[in-house]
Amino acid sequence: MDKLVIEGGKPLSGTIRIHGAKNAALPILAASVMAEGTHVIENVPDLLDIQTMLNILERIGCKTEHRLQTVTLDTSDVHTAHIPEDLMGQMRSSIFLMGPLLARFGEVQIYQPGGCAIGERKIDLHLKGLEALGAEIVEEENRLICKAAQLTGADIVLDFPSVGATENIMMAAVKAEGITTITNAAREPEIQDLQHFLNSMGAKIIGAGTDTITIEGVSELTPCVYSVIPDRIVAGTLMVAAAATRGSITLQNVNPGHLTSAMHVLKRAGVQIAVDGDIITVGCHTRPKPVERIVTSPYPAFPTDLQSQVMVLLCLADGVSIMKETIFEGRFKHVDELSRMGADISVDMGSAFIRGVPRLYGATVEATDLRAGAALVIAGLAATGITVVEQIHHIDRGYDRIEQIFQHLGATIERRSPASQPLLRRLNNQ
Ligand SMILES: CC(=O)N[C@H]1[C@@H](OP(=O)(O)OP(=O)(O)OC[C@H]2O[C@@H](n3ccc(=O)[nH]c3=O)[C@H](O)[C@@H]2O)O[C@H](CO)[C@@H](O)[C@@H]1O
Ligand SMILES: C=C(OP(=O)(O)O)C(=O)O
Fold it and tell me: Which pathway does this chain act in (predicted)?
């Protein structure tokens, strides 16, 4: 198993381009199976989850190539709507194939999706939405078989603005007969990106980005060339890392409008941020200020996917901060790991009480999930001494070679695979 070895204490500096968004690219790749022919999807990062999605697409009959952040995908020979169990369990986003395959074949077989262990993560809203469009779903042993000779448009009200359920229903509804409305839809930028992609294939969707999405069914879709939006969570992660190391960096290829709530929180923590078009410069040269109360909520509020990273900054603040997690009940696993590095945090009733300390200290810690892992890397970059982050396959799900990103920004960080241990050996010999 690979590990990251980090020698902390160096302020980050330099300029970096933000890669494409995992959470936009994954549903877009899944949606591509609805149009037969060759698609070209640009700005697709080279991540574990993307590889898993491409593996699933290959196994059901697509031809795929991923080169220099561009995926070329021929969906002409898709011959099955049975998603392989071993790959389905490797990530949450395998569920995104449910709507598109149902729309193309009138049938789909799935298993329980995998993904970060950050909460119960049911799929009931996905299933209820597809049933409202006319699908019949039966459970047989450990798989779900979903059938609909013809999907029919419906008015669907989501009990909660689930990102994944909104996307799955949108994709299935594209080929349904008649009009579908999704009320209380999630409003994340990745949903707008999916709408743009689907409309580029010939779909008729309006409203993504608001809480009501309307989809007029069409009978034919054609392949297209499309470029994925930049990853707002990667951008937010780097902004926090710059501030936590008391450095200053410039991010290119960012949509600042997607980061409004995150920038608001960072500014309250004393971080200096300048925006110029799609460029953000971020820096912090003093101890961060505590932030009284941050609550994670659906977009446009503060994102759960940045909760653990921002917590690291608040661990170093001059006072007490409170973070409330309302999306995933199991998303505080990084707290124990940060405590090993000297953080002073207690958790009660879904809120973390963070008493700032002057410094964190290097330790061996474990990435329990994707964003928890990113938070530990930031903590390691800011800490005094050497940090080893284990279980980094979680981090590889969402960051395109995180060690190279931070090396580019001047950090001393190295990936150590079982075969090579140069940095650790060098540091131990000092
Ligand atoms: C690939 C992707 O885009 N992942 C993002 C997506 O995940 P994902 O689409 O899984 O997140 P959802 O918005 O669906 O989940 C939010 C909440 O709703 C619950 N829920 C969801 C579906 C359902 O059928 N039943 C149900 O109860 C979940 O357990 C969770 O408590 O949005 C999350 C919330 O912004 C982000 O953290 C993830 O990074
Ligand atoms: C939770 C995340 O991803 P997923 O929904 O794919 O598990 C994430 O991107 O932080």
Answer: Cell wall biogenesis; peptidoglycan biosynthesis
Q: In what order do the strands lie in the sheet with 155-157?
A: 155-157, 179-183, 212-216, 204-206
Residues 299, 328: contact at Cβ < 8 Å?
A: no
Nearest CA to ligand 2 atom 6: 92
Q: Binding residue per annotation — 204?
A: no
Sole residue written with tokens 């941020």: 273
pLDDT digits (tens, 9 = 90+) for 86-109: 999 999 999 999 999 999 999 999
Give the residue, by CA position, lying nearest to ligand 2 atom 5.
Answer: 92
User: 3-state SS of the chain: helix, strand, coil percent to 5?
Assistant: 35, 25, 40
- Residue 116 CB less than 6 A away from ligand 2: yes
Atom 15 (ligand 1) nearest CA: 162
Q: Please tell me the predicted confidence (pLDDT) of residue 174.
A: 98
Residues forming beta bridges with residue 423, ordered by sequence position: none
3-state secondary structure of 303: coil
pLDDT in tens, 21-59: 999 999 999 999 999 999 999 999 999 999 999 999 999
Active site residues per annotation: 116
As a whole number of Å, the end-to-end CA separation of the chain is 25
Q: Which atom of ligand 1 is nearest to the CA of 329?
A: 31
Q: Which of 239, 278, 279 is nearest to 261 (CA)?
A: 239
The Å distance, Cα 338 to ligand 2 centre, comes to: 20
Testing ligand 1's pocket by substitution, the residue of 28, 98, 121 carrying the most ligand atoms inside 8 A of its CB is: 121
Please give the torsion angle defined by the CA atoms of residues 290, 294, 300 and 306, in that order, rounded to the nearest 10 degrees. Answer: 70
**Pocket flag, ligand 2, residue 305 (CB < 6 Å):** yes
Domains of the chain: 3-18+230-429 (3.65.10.10), 22-227 (3.65.10.10)
Mean pLDDT split into 10-residue runs, the chain, 430 residues: 96 98 98 98 97 97 97 96 93 96 96 89 96 96 94 98 98 98 98 98 98 97 98 98 98 98 98 98 96 97 98 98 97 97 97 98 97 98 98 97 98 90 58
